[in-house]
Amino acid sequence: MGCVRYDDVFAIWDDHDYGINNGDSSYQYKLDSKQIFTQFWDQQKQSEKISRGGGGGDDSDEENGIWFSHTMEFTDGNGDIRFVKVVMVDMRFEKDDYKSENGSFLNQNQWDWLEDEFIHNIDDKVF
Q: Which of 41, 43, 44, 88 gives 11 a disulfide partner, CB atoms 3.0 to 4.6 angstroms apart?
Protein backbone atom coordinates (compact mmCIF):
# COMPACT_ATOMS: atom_id res chain seq x y z
CA MET A 1 0.00 0.00 0.00
CA GLY A 2 1.36 3.42 -0.93
CA CYS A 3 1.56 6.50 1.18
CA VAL A 4 -1.65 8.52 1.56
CA ARG A 5 -1.39 12.28 1.30
CA TYR A 6 -3.44 14.05 3.91
CA ASP A 7 -3.13 17.80 4.47
CA ASP A 8 -4.94 18.30 7.76
CA VAL A 9 -3.02 18.49 11.02
CA PHE A 10 -4.70 17.45 14.26
CA ALA A 11 -2.99 17.99 17.59
CA ILE A 12 -3.44 16.83 21.16
CA TRP A 13 -1.36 17.77 24.15
CA ASP A 14 0.64 15.93 26.74
CA ASP A 15 1.73 17.37 30.05
CA HIS A 16 4.45 19.64 28.72
CA ASP A 17 2.07 21.23 26.20
CA TYR A 18 -0.51 21.50 28.96
CA GLY A 19 1.85 23.70 30.93
CA ILE A 20 3.24 21.71 33.83
CA ASN A 21 5.06 18.39 34.14
CA ASN A 22 2.60 15.63 35.10
CA GLY A 23 -0.19 18.23 35.13
CA ASP A 24 -3.69 17.20 36.11
CA SER A 25 -7.17 18.65 36.57
CA SER A 26 -6.00 20.87 39.43
CA TYR A 27 -3.64 22.89 37.19
CA GLN A 28 -4.67 26.50 37.82
CA TYR A 29 -3.97 27.67 34.25
CA LYS A 30 -5.68 24.82 32.38
CA LEU A 31 -8.27 27.09 30.73
CA ASP A 32 -5.52 29.47 29.60
CA SER A 33 -3.49 26.53 28.28
CA LYS A 34 -6.51 25.24 26.38
CA GLN A 35 -7.14 28.63 24.79
CA ILE A 36 -3.52 29.03 23.70
CA PHE A 37 -3.28 25.46 22.40
CA THR A 38 -6.50 25.62 20.36
CA GLN A 39 -5.56 29.02 18.91
CA PHE A 40 -2.06 27.86 18.00
CA TRP A 41 -3.32 24.70 16.28
CA ASP A 42 -6.29 26.60 14.78
CA GLN A 43 -8.72 23.94 15.95
CA GLN A 44 -11.72 26.21 15.37
CA LYS A 45 -10.91 26.08 11.64
CA GLN A 46 -10.96 22.28 11.80
CA SER A 47 -14.25 22.17 13.71
CA GLU A 48 -16.35 21.05 10.72
CA LYS A 49 -14.06 18.06 10.20
CA ILE A 50 -13.86 16.64 13.70
CA SER A 51 -16.27 15.04 16.15
CA ARG A 52 -15.80 16.63 19.53
CA GLY A 53 -18.13 14.53 21.63
CA GLY A 54 -18.46 17.31 24.21
CA GLY A 55 -14.79 18.27 24.22
CA GLY A 56 -12.69 20.28 21.86
CA GLY A 57 -11.86 23.88 21.29
CA ASP A 58 -15.34 25.38 21.46
CA ASP A 59 -15.47 28.49 23.63
CA SER A 60 -18.97 27.39 24.67
CA ASP A 61 -17.41 24.20 26.00
CA GLU A 62 -14.55 25.75 27.94
CA GLU A 63 -14.89 23.44 30.92
CA ASN A 64 -13.89 20.41 28.85
CA GLY A 65 -10.52 19.40 27.49
CA ILE A 66 -9.53 19.06 23.84
CA TRP A 67 -10.56 15.47 23.04
CA PHE A 68 -11.94 14.67 19.58
CA SER A 69 -11.94 12.25 16.67
CA HIS A 70 -11.69 12.52 12.91
CA THR A 71 -12.58 9.96 10.25
CA MET A 72 -10.52 10.01 7.08
CA GLU A 73 -11.60 8.44 3.80
CA PHE A 74 -9.13 7.30 1.18
CA THR A 75 -8.73 4.81 -1.63
CA ASP A 76 -6.29 1.96 -1.00
CA GLY A 77 -3.94 0.33 -3.52
CA ASN A 78 -6.73 -1.97 -4.72
CA GLY A 79 -9.09 0.91 -5.47
CA ASP A 80 -11.26 0.16 -2.42
CA ILE A 81 -12.51 3.01 -0.25
CA ARG A 82 -11.18 2.72 3.31
CA PHE A 83 -11.94 4.64 6.46
CA VAL A 84 -9.53 5.38 9.30
CA LYS A 85 -10.69 6.99 12.52
CA VAL A 86 -8.10 8.97 14.50
CA VAL A 87 -9.11 9.32 18.16
CA MET A 88 -7.36 12.03 20.15
CA VAL A 89 -7.87 11.79 23.91
CA ASP A 90 -7.04 14.55 26.38
CA MET A 91 -5.22 12.78 29.23
CA ARG A 92 -4.57 15.93 31.28
CA PHE A 93 -7.56 18.26 31.61
CA GLU A 94 -9.66 15.89 33.77
CA LYS A 95 -6.83 13.68 35.12
CA ASP A 96 -6.92 12.89 38.82
CA ASP A 97 -3.82 13.36 40.94
CA TYR A 98 -1.46 10.36 40.80
CA LYS A 99 -1.91 9.93 44.56
CA SER A 100 -5.70 9.51 44.35
CA GLU A 101 -6.96 5.98 44.85
CA ASN A 102 -8.97 4.73 41.85
CA GLY A 103 -7.99 7.85 39.91
CA SER A 104 -8.78 8.35 36.25
CA PHE A 105 -7.40 10.24 33.29
CA LEU A 106 -10.89 10.93 31.89
CA ASN A 107 -14.22 12.12 33.25
CA GLN A 108 -17.39 10.05 32.72
CA ASN A 109 -18.44 12.04 29.61
CA GLN A 110 -15.07 11.30 28.03
CA TRP A 111 -15.27 7.57 28.89
CA ASP A 112 -18.78 7.37 27.38
CA TRP A 113 -17.65 9.23 24.26
CA LEU A 114 -14.54 7.05 23.89
CA GLU A 115 -16.58 3.86 24.15
CA ASP A 116 -18.93 5.24 21.48
CA GLU A 117 -16.00 6.03 19.19
CA PHE A 118 -14.89 2.40 19.15
CA ILE A 119 -18.36 0.97 18.52
CA HIS A 120 -18.60 2.46 15.01
CA ASN A 121 -17.74 0.16 12.14
CA ILE A 122 -14.59 1.75 10.72
CA ASP A 123 -11.86 -0.12 8.84
CA ASP A 124 -9.02 1.05 11.12
CA LYS A 125 -8.70 3.12 14.27
CA VAL A 126 -5.72 5.07 15.60
CA PHE A 127 -5.78 5.90 19.29
A: 41
Q: Which residue type is seen at 124?
A: D
CA distance 63 to 31: 8
Q: What is the largest CA-CA distance in the chain?
A: 51
3-state secondary structure 63-85: CCCCCEEEEEEEECCCCCEEEEE
Cα separation, 81 vs 92, in Å, equals 35
Element (H, E) at 125: strand 124-126
One-letter amino acid identity for 36? Answer: I
pLDDT digits (tens, 9 = 90+) for 4-63: 566 677 788 887 788 888 889 999 999 898 888 888 887 666 555 555 654 444 444 556
